[in-house]
Amino acid sequence: MDLPLLENDLDRPALLDPHRVVPRGVRLPERAVLCFFPEVVAGLEPVRTIHLSSELGPWPVHVIERDGVAVAVVQPGVGAPLSVIFLEELVALGVRSVVAVGGAGSLVPELTVGHAVVVDSAVRDEGTSFHYAPAGRVIEADPVGMAALSSTLDAADVPYVTARTWTTDAVFRETRTRVDRRVAEGCVVVDMEASALIAVARHRGVRLAHLLFAGDSLAGEEWEHRGWTKAADIRAGLFEVACAAVRDR
């Protein structure tokens, strides 16, 4: 099929570069955490905060310290397009190493609420990644980032699995047939950002690892919320793991 997403112009420069829209004269630390848990970000005590421009209004990026190391933290919205915009702008401001941490839907019953998943690959059922990486069904995660994240989880004695995620744009079109097909090809969770973030990091030459928190469930006949947004202690703990992983790289 002659789809626009399959047009390969990856070697062509974009008309709008992120350096054109970020605040001038601002540099961020080389390390950053993309934290998809808004209550965790709201509870931070930053040493300084900058704001990125957005149609949603000024968007805060906090700089915190962990063991004397500066880390930039942003809640990058929801979905691949918006999170990629913020990742692009962080890179333009000097970020070179990133850990993303957020929630995902469980596709298999053994992943109970709060179980950690280190993303090793993602099925690309979204559109953004195709503007950054050659067309393909699956994209592999950065092995260096994965190793750093896994080592941090091991040191913290946090149980986790290393596995594939299914990244989709359409949260309300996750049908049983699609879930079954994704499980058959090795996906254990579904999210909305991972494959795109992996593609952008590779395109821009920065390190990125992705840590997912098993939240709601699509493993049964009906969707279950499982109260995953109220698991505050687990979400805060995984954020600290992400900070430690990016700090020690």
UniProtKB/TrEMBL annotation:
It catalyses: uridine + phosphate = alpha-D-ribose 1-phosphate + uracil. This is Uridine phosphorylase. Its EC number is 2.4.2.3. CDD domains: NP-I_spr0068 (cd09007). It comes from the Bacteria. It comes from Pseudonocardia xishanensis. Residues 31-230 form the Nucleoside phosphorylase domain.
